[in-house]
Write a structure and sequence with these properties.
The complex is a heterodimer of chains A (about 400) and B (about 100). Chain A is an all-alpha fold. Chain A contains 18 helices and no strands. The N and C termini of chain A lie far apart (about 55 Å). The N and C termini of chain B lie far apart (about 55 Å). In chain B, strands 1-2-3-5-4 form a five-stranded mixed β-barrel. Chain B is built from one helix and five strands; from the N terminus they run αβββββ. About 5% of the residues of chain B have low confidence. The longest helix of chain B has 23 residues. Classes of the chains: A mainly alpha (about 400), B alpha+beta (about 100). The interface between A and B is large, with 50 and 38 residues.
């Protein structure tokens, strides 16, 4: 019976999503490519819709779980990079689990309305895509001006933006394997870990309680921001979750910890919306979905329905698992020496960077770490370092 | 929003997903098309460049069929092409053997 086959695919996808979500450097795109590359073998045993459902479930689960290494280990990927800063702050206040809880709230509560609004998105996307795509470059310039102008140290903000932007241009135009891993890990992960070593930070006793309480208005703003950013902003080429989060935050102006809700929601919505864009405008906005298209090239309404159901089920399971696994992480992290853990994580990220990208990856890691240290020392906002992704995108629209 | 409420919403999510999965799966053929290795259809449009010919085929008009080298096709011609799906520029194309 096909429904049992699909349910099995969801369960397997959730298992793979746990693996990709918890392992820094292992992205769903990588696993999806592996699945596609062995699909000729797998398709002897399972159907194409089985593999596609597995990829969708893995992707959704990943968007829930990837908050854990970002917050506890400071090892972000492109989707969670903006959650590292408030998340790490909460970790150092003994509220690491609470930070994960906030991202889970965002993911789960954005997932349901997103699935409900799919018919609306199907109608709206073709119109929006055609009429707005020529203005995105200008919108990003306005966003950039806004981010720099509101910074207390404007000169340092410009310095960080320009240097990270040029680094992004060099890295993204090189033929380096996994270019974002070294760049983002250095800029947002290792730089913070290095400074916390010198600042003699230690992880305090972790309280697995709901200490951060947000008001109803904050919830509404951050969830609306997550759905808006994950759907309409990432509709356009070149704009990833990190830029979408920055743009959405400048519109909805959420508080520091509500930002975790927004980022969590945005990532989950962004993945579902990639399926909708594939159906509505025949464009995939996600590497895993591009891989899926190689197995199942045509998206029909019934398939979109199956994937939406898979997203709901995987999202529900992932919520339960993420909260439990985060508790295990917070228990483990307070029982290890933070200094040794930080050194181990730095070595691990450096090793992965060398494994993925060789000596050039190490060079990128070194330079991006140096850039990432500047905002922390000078007091300007670290989100200026997102210039590494924003500047290439702005140039993409204007050149 | 505490953990218990989140868990309840998560379970509701699963419970809503299951009937939706059952309903939509009824419209999906169990023996779904396997990896696309052949395209059959009528030529809708032909775009010849220096070294490649791109053909849009009905009913698979979403996936352009790419031939390396010069090939001549007539609009409305019935064709059967063997090849492989490849990803290109955020989309896919069917590269003829």
């Amino acid at each position: 019976m096909i429904v049992i086959e699909l349910f099995l695919a969801i369960v397997l996808g959730v298992c793979l999503g746990i693996f990709t979500g918890l392992t820094p450097g292992i992205h769903i795109n990588l696993v999806s490519v592996i699945i596609v590359s062995i699909s000729s073998l797998l398709l002897n045993y399972v159907s194409a819709i089985f593999l596609a459902t597995l990829i969708v479930s893995m992707g959704i689960t990943h968007t829930f779980l990837d908050a854990i290494p970002s917050i506890f280990l400071g090892a972000p990927d492109t989707d969670t990079v903006m959650a590292v800063l408030p998340g790490h702050k909460l970790l150092l206040e003994g509220l690491g689990w609470d930070a994960v809880r906030l991202t889970v709230i965002g993911s789960l509560l954005c997932l349901m309305p997103c699935v409900v609004f799919i018919p609306f998105f199907i109608l709206a996307f073709p119109f929006l895509f055609e009429h707005l795509k020529s203005y995105i470059g200008y919108l990003l310039v306005v966003l950039l001006g806004f981010i720099i102008l509101k910074d207390k140290s404007k000169l340092w903000a410009i310095f960080v933006f320009i240097f990270s932007g040029f680094l992004g241009l060099i890295v993204l135009n090189s033929d380096i394997n996994q270019p974002l891993f070294s760049m983002l890990s250095g800029m947002f992960g290792i730089s913070a870990l290095l400074l916390s070593l010198f600042n003699k930070d230690s992880v305090p006793v972790q309280m697995n309680d709901e200490c951060v309480q947000l008001g109803k208005l904050e919830y509404v703003k951050s969830l609306a921001g997550g759905v808006f950013a994950g759907s309409f902003i990432t509709l356009f080429p070149g704009i990833g979750p990190a830029q979408a989060a920055a743009l959405s935050n400048s519109i909805f102006k959420v508080e520091e910890y509500s930002y975790l809700v927004l980022v969590g929601g945005l990532n989950t919505v962004n993945f579902i919306i990639s399926l909708v864009t594939l159906f509505a405008i025949n464009k995939a906005r996600n590497g895993a979905i591009v891989s899926m298209m190689e197995i199942l090239p045509n998206m029909s309404l019934a398939r979109l329905g199956v994937f939406s159901a898979a997203a709901l089920i995987a999202g529900g399971i992932a919520t339960i698992l993420t909260l439990k696994i985060a508790k295990a992480f917070s228990f483990m992290i307070e029982h290890v020496n933070y200094k040794i853990l930080s050194v181990c994580i730095i070595c691990f990220i450096t090793g992965l960077s060398f494994y993925f990208s060789g000596f050039f990856g190490l060079l990128v890691l070194l330079v991006s770490t140096a850039i990432g240290i500047v905002p922390q020392v000078t007091g300007c906002c670290r989100s200026n370092a997102m210039g590494c992704l924003l500047l290439p995108v702005i140039l993409f629209y204007f050149l | 929003m505490n953990e218990k409420v989140l868990l309840v919403i998560a379970i509701i999510c699963i419970i809503l997903g299951l009937p939706l999965l059952y309903f939509c799966s009824q419209y999906i053929i169990a023996n779904d098309p396997r990896v696309l290795s052949e395209i059959t259809g009528v030529v809708a449009s032909v775009n010849s460049k220096e070294k490649i010919t791109i053909v849009n085929v009905i009913p698979d008009k979403g996936i352009p069929v790419v031939f390396f080298g010069n090939h001549s096709f007539e609009k409305g011609e019935q064709i059967k092409v063997k090849g492989q799906l490849k990803s290109y520029n955020n989309g896919v194309e069917f590269v003829a053997e």
